[in-house]
Amino acid sequence: MDLFSREPSANLLPRDGEVIYFGPILDASDHENHLQTLLESVPWESDELVMFGRRVTTSRKVAWYGDRPFAYKYSGSEKVALAWTSLLQDLKRRVEDLSGERFNSCLLNLYHDGSEGMGWHRDDESAIVRDSAIGSLSFGAERKFSFKHAETKEGVSLVLEKGSLLVMKGETQRHWLHALPKTKKSNEPRVNLTFRRMKE
Ligand SMILES: O=C(O)CCC(=O)C(=O)O
Ligand SMILES: [Fe+2]
């Protein structure tokens, strides 16, 4: 795996947190190979959430990996973290080296096409170490990713390129929501890995 030597961006947020975009960190053939491996070998499962008081099953699929069998809780059910595969461990190391952060778990999302996305939310569950960094690695379809300040409503958006790394850190999750908007422009799958730090 060759690293591209692109300089990370300056902080994309104007206040109250830090978001750094590193751009693509994988070359095109590694990106393609890893995307195929992830699509074929990850035990993708539906996610569940409560919307307007109703339990709904998402068509977006998820998988949850970690150093230990951490619980990932959603709307009353929970998933137990799977043991790292060698590919995920390899990618985790790359993300750690570039970001200077350490992670012990990873949530994977599979969006089959542009009709699937993720609504406004923060990654601030109590099981996550407060103000710990999140490293987000993207494969497949390039999609817009948006931030919205919870109080001022300021907005920041960017396109997450194939094989790119985005790091959210500092007080980002306290003050900013983020979302992956649905789009009619994409009919390709996208896989996203968010490396996280859970409380031990
Ligand atoms: O798919 C993405 O880029 C973001 C996913 C996300 O925000 C999350 O899993 O919490
Ligand atoms: Fe998130």
From TrEMBL:
Listed GO MF terms: dioxygenase activity
> What Gene3D superfamilies would the database entry show?
Alpha-ketoglutarate-dependent dioxygenase AlkB-like
* Domain Fe2OG dioxygenase span(s) in chain numbering: 102-199
What's the domain of life for this entry? Bacteria
Q: Which UniProt keywords apply?
A: Dioxygenase, Oxidoreductase
Alphabetical list of PANTHER family matching this protein: ALPHA-KETOGLUTARATE-DEPENDENT DIOXYGENASE ALKB HOMOLOG 3
According to UniProt, the name of this protein is Alpha-ketoglutarate-dependent dioxygenase AlkB family protein
What is the native source organism of this protein?
Haloferula chungangensis
Q: What is the lineage of its organism?
A: Bacteria, Pseudomonadati, Verrucomicrobiota, Verrucomicrobiia, Verrucomicrobiales
